[in-house]
Amino acid sequence: MYVYICICVYVYVCICMFIYIYKTAYRETCSEGRPQNQLQNTQCSQRGTVDILKARCDGRKVCEINTNVVRTSDPCFGIFKYLETNYTCFPASQSHVCMSLLTNVGQVILVYGAYYGRLDKTTCSFRRPDSQIQNVYCSNPTPKVAQRCNGKNSCTISASNSVFGDPCYGTYKYLEVSYGEYPHVHTLVFSLLVIGGNEITSPSASTRHG
Length: 210
Prior knowledge:
Layout: E1 2-5, E2 9-13, E3 18-28, H1 49-57, E4 62-66, E5 81-90, E6 93-96, E7 99-102, E8 107-118, E9 138-141, H2 144-149, E10 154-157, H3 161-164, E11 174-195, E12 198-209
Antiparallel strand pairs: 1-5, 2-4, 3-5, 6-11, 7-10, 8-9, 8-11, 11-12
């Protein structure tokens, strides 16, 4: 999907699937009603924008973005700018908790996004006092789940402050992970051995996922 954002806020939605941002740029366009001097520079693009959006949106079904969050610098002073985003929707499993991720035989894990904190009042709320579930704007995107689990058949990780830090003191938090399964591909790497003047190729197996 290809999106231009001229207004301040935009909501990405994936019904029954999960968002994956693969290209974005914060640059000029949306020219209606703008003077010509604000539209002259057409080679204006801010670096790092895709990383900001990926951290906020990857692995979620709905993602709301205010263009103010990507204004880390002004790539072209005086030019009226817009946010351009390419994203797609991937089928994925979603898990909460203190957690184990498992795949089917012959598959490996690929994490789309992971968040530690609280985004609603109902998830992991059983027998928790209201004071611990009120803050629903507590979310800390984390790469740690992907670092530990990508490419594995199974993975266990604890949803705790000791692993992910504490993004909101006093709030009962959970870990939300969106992930998919991909085929497990074995690659043989051959090394050359020379024994008694004879060349022998010796295979050593390594693994990748694709």
